[in-house]
Amino acid sequence: MCPAQCRLLGGYVRRLCVAVFLLFVCFVSVSQSAVTTEWAVGTLTTVLSTELNSLASNAYTVASATYDNRIGQAGNGFTLCRIELVATFGGNPTANTGVSVWFLKSADGGTNFENTPTATIGLGRPPDVVLPVTTGQTGTRVAVDVLCPAERFRFVAKNDGTGQTLAASGNIIRLLPITPQGN
User: Fold this and answer.
1) Contact assessment for residue 111 and residue 105, using Cβ atoms and an 8 Å cutoff
2) pTM (2 decimals)?
3) What is the pLDDT of residues 147-176, one digit of tens each?
4) What is the distance between the alpha carbons of residues 181 and 4, in angstroms, rounded to a whole number?
5) What is the count of structural domains for the chain?
6) Are residues 50 and 24 in the same domain?
């Protein structure tokens, strides 16, 4: 190689090194920038209502209508669910009891769901959320945050050992979809 070619090649290498360095600086500055995490909240949906009316202690509801947690649908693919119980009992419920809730999941897009538990058929797994009841009074309002299933699912609840029957009306379980988002 002649000296002119070496100078030309050296200038090219120098420009390439500067370009790589600038790309590195840009990448580091982007990766080090502050990210604010916020909670995105969806629409509050009643998932069980009349199914809870006059539900005896240790009895199950029938399965709810299907809740759709796909992106663009009711749950919009959110990863957390705030499950709220508003209930009135015929008398003060037994301490350390609650209303147990199962999410009946579907593996085939909403055609078939897990078995609905009954007094004689157990689901074979623990509930997805237990909503503890307030003792010392007949009314309960409680909310618990849990992981929200993907895809479509249904709800079934059990008045789990409260020793009291739920009121004939006004009882609800609602779902509020929540997900963290960064910006």
Assistant:
1) no
2) 0.79
3) 999 999 999 999 999 999 999 999 999 999
4) 56
5) 2
6) no
**Owning domain of residue 27:** 1-33
Compute the distance between CA of residue 51 and CA of residue 56 in angstroms, rounded to an integer. 11
DSSP state, residue 95: T
Q: What is the DSSP string of 120-133?
A: S---SS--SEEEEP
Outline where DSSP puts E strands in 107-165: 129-132, 139-147, 152-160
Amino acid at 94: T
Q: What are phi and psi of 24, to 5 degrees?
A: -60, -45
Here the tokens at position 181 are: 């988002």
Same domain, 28 and 78: no
CATH number at residue 108: 2.60.120
Q: Is the Cα torsion angle 147, 149, 150, 154 positive or negative in sign?
A: negative
Task: Report the C-alpha gap between 107 and 129 in whole angstroms.
Answer: 20
53 shares its domain with 20: no
Q: Where are the alpha helices (DSSP H) in the chain?
A: 3-31
* The two three-digit tokens of residue 81, written as one number: 């669910």
32-63 residue pLDDT tens: 567 788 999 999 999 999 999 999 999 999 99
Neighbours of 118 (CB within 10 A): 13
Determine the 3-state secondary structure of 23 from DSSP. helix
113 and 87 share one domain: yes
